[in-house]
Amino acid sequence: MITNCSAGVSAFTANAYLVTGERTVLIDAGANYDVASAVREHVDGLDAVVLTHTHSDHVENVPALREAFGVETWGFDPGHERVDHGIADAESVTIGDHEYDALHTPGHRDDHLVFCSRTAGVGFVGDLVFAGGSFGRTDLEEGDAERLVESVERLRAALDDGEVETLYAGHGPAIDDPIDGVAASLRAARFAR
């Protein structure tokens, strides 16, 4: 089961997806609200926090989660203070009841990761792409429009078999038609660079 623990929060934050199952994981920690209480509405504990990237709106609540649940975090850059363990490009990660392939997708931020599971039919895309054909900003530190286009192209290629049916973005609603949605984001990102 996937629950957005940031749903209904009016503060500036990222979506924080609670994935329950064999390994209960929170995808991104969010910011500016009591995420630990939001998680406790659904489960008693967490096995891990997995980060799509380390912009503050995705990681500000990490210390509170560490304190509340004694949980460690995983992300691309273990040198970052909010990342305890590294996840390499193409590494497999257990989230809920399924294995997810990690794709390193820089452009919005150098440490950006996307997680896709064909068996679950789900992907978590952070701030790489959004519903409605939008894409992550490249005007922030480490942003790079060319690299973002390459990363969106890589995601698009990973979706070619059509087995991923829903992409959960770091902000806004899910993308329910991933192939067309990512293609629209790719067109927009190419045009904007």
Furnish the topology, listing elements before pairings.
Elements lengths: L1 E3 L12 E3 L5 E3 L7 H6 L7 E3 L5 H4 L2 H8 L3 E3 L9 E2 L5 E4 L2 E7 L8 E5 L4 E5 L2 E2 L3 E2 L9 H14 L7 E4 L8 H15 L1
Parallel strand pairs: 3-4, 4-5, 5-6, 10-13
Antiparallel strand pairs: 1-2, 2-3, 7-8, 8-9, 9-10, 11-12
Helix pairs in contact: 4-5
What can be said about the biggest beta sheet?
Answer: 6 strands, mixed
How many helices? The count is 5
CATH topology: Metallo-beta-lactamase, Chain A
* Total discrete domains: 1
| Overall 3D shape | globular
Q: Can you identify the CATH superfamily?
A: Ribonuclease Z/Hydroxyacylglutathione hydrolase-like
What kind of assembly state do the chains in view correspond to?
Answer: single chain
Q: Structural class, judged by helices and strands? A: alpha/beta
Instruction: Output the radius of gyration.
Output: 15 Å
Give the H and E element order: EEEHEHHEEEEEEEEHEH
CATH A-level architecture: 4-Layer Sandwich
Stretches where pLDDT is under 50 for at least 5 consecutive residues are none
Order of adjacent strands in the largest pleated sheet: 1-2-3-4-5-6
DSSP, total strands: 13
CATH first level: which class? Alpha Beta
Beta-strand portion reads 15-25%
Distance between the termini: 37 Å
Structure in words:
Its cofactor is Zn(2+). With 193 residues, the protein is an alpha/beta fold. The chain has one domain (2-192): Ribonuclease Z/Hydroxyacylglutathione hydrolase-like (Metallo-beta-lactamase, Chain A, 4-Layer Sandwich), CATH 3.60.15. The protein is built from five helices and 13 strands. It has helices at 35-40, 56-59, 62-69, 145-158, 178-192, and strands at 2-4, 17-19, 25-27, 48-50, 73-75, 85-86, 92-95, 98-104, 113-117, 122-126, 129-130, 134-135, 166-169. A hairpin with a 2-residue loop joins β7 (92-95) and β8 (98-104). The longest helix has 15 residues, at 178-192. The mean pLDDT is 97.
